[in-house]
Specification:
454 residues, alpha/beta, 7-stranded mixed β-sheet, 11 strands, flat
Length: 454
């Protein structure tokens, strides 16, 4: 897969958006007779800043490979409604007068026209880019049938979807596109860099479940081609490929754009409040206490695995004397490495407070599976079934497992298995109300005496 797309396209998209916005703004100022003030009124920069924030926050640059132009236009209209509402409120506050109706009407029209033309053009160009074999995703179909054949025809016909069909796995009806038998999938899959697996629901359910488990461990999307009455213990959603529909099997609530928006909004506001009103004075105070007791840095920075196993720098207040075993050896009761200040920080969980900076930066969430150090993560992956599922979302400062008593040192396999089960339940059943409940429960737990906090 062409990875450069994911690195550069969002920036190019946002820069183009800004240019289109600036053009619309100039035209609106000209129509409303305010163009002469554009060079001396820096308040117009607010328009650009708000639009950048809204575009990035709503991830408008993510153009679905199977979506049509109509969806891009609908998405733009939704963003414009939010944008004009925010700007109208801010403008009345800043100008201390009622907003100019002519200006806002011309701005709304200009934004829809110029940004609409730009985004539709980007959508069509991206389709052509994918049609030429760029930004593709590798896909295979497991099990043949009428639906499987029809889907393969869609892939071959709609190259603009950017889905590179690698062939079938099936025990019968061999053809030139058959890669092997069903049992051979697990041997070949690690060698072909899969992104999407399409399963014909006529194959046996135990094999379907085994394939889904394999895909979940490796962050591969699974979609089912409905031929019969599929029975799975999951809430199913659908993806559309032209007029052909497939079932999304391993979708989670946070795959939904609105749910991600709600969670990120909560994370951003919560962490911003903590950083401004708590960490602003807590870091100097705790930093002084740490420095007075032992040499070393104020923060302990540790590599940990985040969403999709991407490694990030997790921040904590340093609670131990500098040592060579911090990544591989867990803290135990009466651990000689823990300083007096560190013991207090750990017992009150204040050592975790700098992680709100990680949340503000988008590397963590307030609520989610607790991240482990890279060596521990590697070890648990080999010991615990479905361990990698916990990396489908951002790690959290607190989580469902923590409020259920599974925090601190991992003394036996049962504890980590229980954590993983609770993390899996949280990921599959997430809601904003669950996050709020976990936060309230965490505050209650922090006020209680916890024997395993050391």
């Amino acid at each position: 897969m062409n990875k450069r797309y994911y690195k550069y396209f969002p920036w190019i998209f946002v820069l183009g958006d800004i240019f289109a916005l600036f053009t619309a703004l100039l035209v609106s100022l000209k129509i409303s007779g305010q163009l002469s003030h554009v060079n001396i009124n820096p308040q117009y920069l607010i328009f650009i800043v708000v639009w950048i924030g809204l575009t990035v926050f709503r991830k408008d640059y993510k153009i679905g490979r199977t979506t049509e132009v109509e969806n891009t236009i609908k998405r733009l209209v939704s963003s414009l409604i939010w944008y004009l509402a925010i700007i109208s409120i801010l403008w009345m506050i800043i100008r201390n007068e009622r907003a100019n109706i002519d200006f806002h009407l011309s701005l709304a029209t200009g934004l829809f026209l110029f940004i609409g033309i730009y985004r539709v053009a980007v959508h069509l160009l991206l389709k052509q880019y994918r049609k030429k074999g760029n930004n593709f995703r590798n896909a295979i179909i497991i099990g043949k049938g009428p639906g499987s054949k029809r889907l393969a025809e869609v892939f071959n016909k709609r190259k603009d979807f950017g889905i590179n069909f690698l062939g079938y796995f099936d025990d019968a009806n061999p053809c030139i596109q058959t890669r092997g038998r069903l049992s051979g999938f697990f041997d070949q899959a690690p060698k072909i860099n899969l992104d999407l697996i399409y399963i014909n629901d006529r194959i046996d359910f135990p094999l379907i479940k085994r394939i889904i488990d394999y895909a979940d461990e490796r962050y591969i999307k699974v979609k089912v081609i409905p031929e019969t009455n599929l029975q799975l213990e999951k809430n199913l959603s659908f993806s559309q490929y032209g007029d052909f529909y497939v079932i999304n099997v391993n979708e989670i609530p946070l795959d939904n754009l609105l749910n991600r928006f709600l969670k990120r909004t909560f994370d951003f506001i919560f962490s911003l409040f903590v950083c401004i009103f708590i960490l602003s004075w807590l870091i100097p105070l705790v930093g002084l206490m740490i420095k007075l007791e032992s040499k070393g840095s104020v923060f302990f920075v540790q590599k940990r695995n985040g969403v999709n196993n991407i490694v990030f720098n997790c921040l904590k207040f340093r609670s131990m004397t500098p040592n060579d075993y911090s990544d591989t050896k867990q803290a135990v009761k009466n651990d000689p490495r823990v300083t007096k200040t560190g013991a207090f920080l750990r017992s009150t969980s204040l050592d975790e407070m700098p992680q709100f900076i990680n949340v503000l930066m988008g590397e963590m969430s307030v609520v989610g599976p607790r991240p482990h150090s890279v060596p521990m993560n590697t070890l648990f992956r080999t010991q615990i079934e479905k361990y990698n599922l916990r990396h489908k979302i951002k790690p959290g400062i607190t989580g469902l497992a923590q409020i259920k008593g599974f925090r601190g040192e991992i003394e036996n396999p049962h504890q980590i298995r229980s954590r993983v089960k609770l993390d899996y339940f949280y990921i599959k059943n997430w809601s904003i109300w669950m996050d709020l409940g976990i936060c309230l429960k965490t505050v209650y737990e922090l006020a209680s005496i916890r024997e395993n906090a050391y």
